[in-house]
């Protein structure tokens, strides 16, 4: 059943919001567990739909998966013999499924992973994943919609340079290299905290990995890895969402579990725009109580630059902030679907190529809008909170993929947001 959020505008969100482990780390760490026979335990795992899909994918590879969403714990029991195929049915539901590619080639010498189709935020190729594995000695080709990588004689360390610091390609090359013979250097890698998280988990399994968090990772291959227990790094995008929620609604939110150091670019920009940002004992706090902060220019970049995943929130913020500003999207070519929906809410926003120019208005005007992905959906809910009257945000299943019980967290901060069944479309 499709659901929507009914959002009543007008609240200044005040209170605390708690973030748990990052979606974009937890899913990859589940795939990393494939590298070791035995029971690996992950803690601080978010209670989101994507974890269920990844659990199902791993089950089909022969892994025993026990997921307790309330406790935030996933136990993965990896047998000696595992499968090597990730079906289209699951990959299309969860693009992060591609992260089984590296571990499977390394462990089994073969991986058949369905090629994810283009999604709502751009075409998102796999060429860098393929080139990296080829450099390690795998044969890679695409056939009948599957990316097939084989390395029957095992992988061999190599010096690799990624043409672009892709998060997914960095992960797949890293997780393949840990069991390769000899030393691998990977240059121009992604530096996201989620990459550091994977490297730390690999180290605790016995892998020899250096340099995660910098632009060059060095891996000395080992023969085998051991299962481990690992806590997922806090979700910086969820934490950033709460920071923007405070700034956009002119409220004050303490983000418990948030790591300010992982959000230097967005928190620095909010501070310069007139918000108070303070590091607290349990996380950080953003306040815009009693004032209207200024709009600011944003250009998305790989970490530590401004994250593309927070771009829809920057747009929503600028739509009601004081002044005009430009948002530039440098990572995904089609990530501006939020703009047309914000325009329905009365935002003054124009797209020009990969830029969006906004002129802030005092208040948006409630209307029905449609989520197109996790982040745009959550950003539209925040837009509804600074709109006059009611905003109906449909496509809540997108939001559920990234934000555990979003509406409950918002209500705890004083927002009037309810989940309800979506009406059947009249022309279905
Ligand atoms: N790219 C290529 N070829 C490749 C790989 C990437 O051209 O082989 C391009 C993509 O088309 C894109 C850019 O490089 O234009 C960045 O892609 P990247 O590989 O860095 O992203 P990803 O691994 O597919 C992850 C997150 C995204 C997040 C991006 C960027 C996961 C599951 N997804 O995607 O998160 O936007 O990094 O930070 O980790 C989200 O959580 O809402 C989300 C979309």
TrEMBL record:
It is found in: Cytoplasm. Residues 9-410 form the Enolpyruvate transferase domain. Keywords: Cell cycle, Cell division, Cell shape, Cell wall biogenesis/degradation, Cytoplasm, Peptidoglycan synthesis, Transferase. Phosphoenolpyruvate binds at residues 23-24. It catalyses: phosphoenolpyruvate + UDP-N-acetyl-alpha-D-glucosamine = UDP-N-acetyl-3-O-(1-carboxyvinyl)-alpha-D-glucosamine + phosphate. UDP-N-acetyl-alpha-D-glucosamine binds at residues 95, 309, 331. SUPFAM superfamilies: EPT/RTPC-like (SSF55205). It is an enzyme of class 2 (transferase). The active site is at 119 (proton donor). Pathway: Cell wall biogenesis; peptidoglycan biosynthesis. The keyword Methyltransferase does not apply. InterPro entries: Enolpyruvate_Tfrase_dom, Enolpyruvate_Tfrase_sf, MurA_subfamily, RNA3'P_cycl/enolpyr_Trfase_a/b, UDP_GlcNAc_COvinyl_MurA. Its main location: cytoplasm. Its EC number is 2.5.1.7. HAMAP family: MurA. Belongs to the EPSP synthase family. MurA subfamily. Cell wall formation. Adds enolpyruvyl to UDP-N-acetylglucosamine. This is UDP-N-acetylglucosamine 1-carboxyvinyltransferase. The gene is murA.
């Amino acid at each position: 059943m499709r659901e929507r959020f009914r959002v009543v505008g007008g609240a200044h969100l005040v209170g605390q919001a708690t973030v748990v482990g990052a979606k974009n780390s937890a899913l990859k760490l589940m795939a990393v567990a494939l590298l070791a026979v035995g029971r690996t335990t992950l803690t601080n795992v978010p209670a989101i739909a994507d974890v269920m899909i990844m659990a199902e994918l791993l089950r089909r590879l022969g892994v025993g998966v026990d997921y307790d969403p309330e406790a935030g714990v996933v136990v993965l029991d990896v047998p000696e013999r595992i499968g090597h195929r990730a079906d289209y049915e699951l990959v299309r539901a969860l693009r992060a499924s591609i992260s089984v590619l590296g571990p499977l080639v390394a462990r089994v010498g073969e991986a058949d992973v369905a090629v994810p189709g283009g999604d709502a935020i751009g075409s998102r190729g796999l060429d860098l994943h393929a080139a990296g594995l080829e450099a390690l000695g795998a044969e890679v080709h695409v056939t009948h919609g599957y990316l097939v990588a084989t390395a029957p004689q095992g992988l061999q360390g190599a010096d690799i340079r990624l043409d672009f610091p892709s998060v997914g390609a960095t992960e797949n090359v890293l997780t393949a290299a840990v069991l390769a013979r000899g030393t691998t250097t990977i240059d121009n890698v992604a530096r996201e905290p989620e990459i550091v998280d994977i490297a730390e988990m690999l180290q605790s399994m016995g892998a020899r990995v250096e340099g995660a968090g910098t632009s060059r990772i060095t891996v000395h291959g080992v023969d085998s890895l051991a299962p481990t227990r690992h806590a997922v790094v806090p979700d910086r995008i969820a934490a950033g969402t709460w920071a923007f929620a405070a700034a956009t609604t002119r409220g004050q939110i303490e983000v418990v579990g948030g790591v300010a150091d992982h959000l230097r670019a967005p928190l620095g920009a909010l501070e310069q725009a007139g918000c108070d940002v303070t590091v607290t004992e349990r996380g950080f706090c953003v306040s815009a109580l009693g004032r209207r902060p200024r709009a600011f220019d944003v250009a998305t970049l790989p970490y530590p630059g401004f994250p593309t995943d927070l771009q829809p929130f920057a747009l929503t913020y600028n739509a009601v902030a004081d002044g005009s500003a430009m948002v530039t999207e440098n990572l995904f070519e089609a990530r501006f679907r939020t703009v047309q929906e914000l325009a329905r809410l009365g935002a003054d926003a124009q797209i020009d190529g990969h830029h969006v120019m906004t002129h802030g208005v005092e208040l948006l005007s409630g209307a029905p809008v449609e989520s197109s992905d996790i982040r745009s959906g959550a950003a539209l809910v925040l837009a509804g909170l600074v709109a006059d009257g009611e905003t109906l945000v449909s496509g809540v299943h997108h939001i559920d993929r990234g934000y555990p019980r979003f509406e409950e967290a918002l209500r705890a901060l004083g927002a009037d947001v309810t989940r309800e069944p979506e009406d059947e479309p009249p022309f279905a």
